[in-house]
Amino acid sequence: MDAKALAVRLFDDRSRAFSVELWDGSLLLPAHDARLGRVQLKSQAALDALLPPSEERVAEAFITGDIELQGDTIGLLEAAARWQGPNIRSQLNLLRSGWRRILGRSAAAALSAGLRGQTHSARRDAQAVQHHYDVSNEFYRLFLDSRMVYSCGYFPTGSESLEEAQQSKLDLICRKLHLGPKDHVLDVGCGWGGLLFYAAAQYRAEGFGITLSKNQLAEAQRQAAALDGLVKIEASDYRHLRPPRAFDKIASIGMMEHVGHERLNEYFGSMFRLLRPGGLFLNHAIANVAPTQTVPWMRRGRSGGFIQRYIFPDSELLPVGMVVAAAERAGFEVRDLESLREHYAQTLAHWLLRLEHRFDEAVALVGKSRARAWRLYLASSAVAFRLGRISVFQLLLAKPARDGRVRELPMNRAGWYSQGPMAESPPLVAGGMHRSPEIGSTANSGAASQVADEGRPH
């Protein structure tokens, strides 16, 4: 059987909702016109990734250019995830006939992290962080907002720009932590310092950030130098941090994915040690919520998948129940849990669109293979959030004071979602709680009402 006949048989399935263009220009239309664009097989070598279907080989074929996506990148990947997969009977018959594998050593192999040492040791974690974040500050600037916030945005109405969504997210974190002037706040894995700079400017909080990324450290320290000591950034591992005094508040935004389940107790134990009694800790992290991978018909190799191998090595997405249990074992009291799954899907769509619009610049900065790998990473991650394979949760924790009270929490969540600075909120009253405005008066009454009504992971 020739390669074209093979491709026709592999894609002969009525569940396929996307078009496939072969290397000779032939077009295999779906049973129903989805108008998403088309998956292009640029060469016969692309077929090798489907015999049998392998996540790593399909990703490598995309990175090397043997597979291309024309049109709605996220929509095409979502359609592929909903597809039943290549015709299984054709695969088996072809494998029995000894179909010759035609892919050589992939150029994508050069992008592999190649980490050394014990998994989630301090030394290896530093390698993993630097592989992911030290690609190039200029590269990240192509698709992030002006504050370089590399985590899920918050879209109160769904129509916000990326800049507005990231500012809303930073402010939401500050509100949940009830930041105020002179609060001593720690940001674990502070990135380029966006949260700390915002907290200093808007809430006059004193910030201290730690990161293992060399590029992030240099840029964050450069910006912090202009703030007269209000924000300090250092290179440090959370396990090694020994501050002269405990922090009033702690934030960890998109860092816990690097911790690993075997280190989870140590992680929350460290946060509990670093926080003063009565303080608040907001942990914002991606969680695994489904037993199946994003594209169920693709096999995943021992490397843990495309993202683990090339983009985000040693990352672990833990079920939120496991995270909550570890936090409670450390001594924390759980005060709030909020899912922002749809918000991350929208954030990633913004990032991908920006990257695709400036793709030639990305190639000039990091090379074609790495730029294509990141395009696939952003799009496939958006699909995973859309389909509910993964989610992202903000977990607000308290370290109770000796009398058992937590004095900086409102009676309801309405104040977190209202407009205007927290300084305009009513002062503390007896019992250490706020009298917050009614939910109906907030700028995002629907979101606040949903969280207040459910009060559980969602």
Fill in the keyword field for this structure.
458 residues, alpha/beta, Rossmann fold, 2 domains, seven-stranded mixed sheet, 13 strands, elongated, disordered C terminus
Overview in brief:
The protein is α/β, with parallel strands linked by helices. Helix content is 38%, strand content 16%.
How would you describe what is shown here?
This protein is an alpha/beta fold and 458 residues long. It has helices at residues 3-10, 55-63, 73-82, 88-96, 122-133, 137-141, 162-176, 194-203, 214-224, 264-274, 306-311, 320-330, 341-357, 359-366, 368-386, 414-417, 445-454; strands spanning 19-21, 27-28, 37-41, 67-71, 184-188, 206-211, 231-235, 247-253, 275-288, 333-339, 390-398, 409-410, 433-434. α2 packs across α15 and α13 (341-357) runs antiparallel to α15. The termini are far apart. It folds into two domains: 3-96, no CATH class; 122-406, Rossmann fold.
Strand order of the largest sheet: 7-6-5-8-9-11-10
Mean pLDDT: 87
The helix/strand series, from N terminus to C terminus, equals HEEEHEHHHHHEHEHEEHEHHEHHHEEHEH
Return the CATH class of the largest domain. Alpha Beta
The largest sheet is: 7 strands, mixed
List the domain count as a whole number: 2
Count the strands? 13
CATH topology of the largest domain: Rossmann fold
Q: Which percent range describes the beta-strand content?
A: 15-25%
